[in-house]
Amino acid sequence: MKNMELEDLALVRPRQFPHPAASARASGADDVLERARVYASLPEALAGCGFVLACTSRDRDHYYRVLDVREAAERVIAESASSPVGVVFGGEHSGLNNEDLAPAHALLRIPTGKAYASLNLAMAVQVVAYEIFRARGSPVPSAPREQPLADPLAMERLYAHLDQVLIEIDFRDRTQNGTHLMNRFRRLLQRAELDGNEVNILRGMLTAVQQRRRRAGGGAQQA
Question: Theoretical Cys-Cys bridge with 72: which of 67, 78, 105, 119, CB 3.0 to 4.6 Å?
């Protein structure tokens, strides 16, 4: 991170931190470790972020937008002008699970040979950090956002509100396990990259649906 002029490190449930081995390996980048913040959960670590990327080499369902690392780095630089950007990496052995991907607007993929696509964590971080450094030197021009992207907490509140309304209007998932519908809504809205005002508009619409049902005798209660 320090090689590439990055300094904002967030650690989620580290096995042990601080640790003498980490300080020894930092080799001149002790200040990055000293400023590192430790969180109990990923949503806490991403609080306040706008654009979020999740780094993974595994194939996921096709509803995720996937960005090549170079394209992703250009987005990081462009989006950081409006609000903090989060790049999420998984553990060395297990990577990121599906729950960890939920706040991401897109997946970040580092191109590799097909026979062996896995990179260890340090190498993956270094490649991404390098591409961000490179993109910072000649960022792709883009129009600044009028409003910053909604942070992950605001998006989770929107999804909870949407789920409640879907239950109230009996708009049910007809798939066998009954879990695909909300996942599809999540992926759709994450790809839309909503700002805070747009989230408020959607939640206002959902509230109007609930109020109309109450006037019609539906008896729903808003959370």
Answer: 67
